[in-house]
Amino acid sequence: MRQFYMDLADWVESVNLNSQTLSESDYWDYVIMSCGELEVKYKRNQLVVDVLVAHLKFLDKGRG
What we know:
The protein is mainly α. It has helices at 2-19, 24-41, 46-63.
């Protein structure tokens, strides 16, 4: 799981950077696509899914 948290940190940083340059629609496309890639990479491990869902909810709340 250590690698997941390192990948998660990279993902969060990437999402933050892309939020400054992408349109709203492109931003969410990027977030969903990249989140899905992490989910698949970690074989839909339930902890991974739960952490990603929590981050998506946080992002949605912050953008809304």
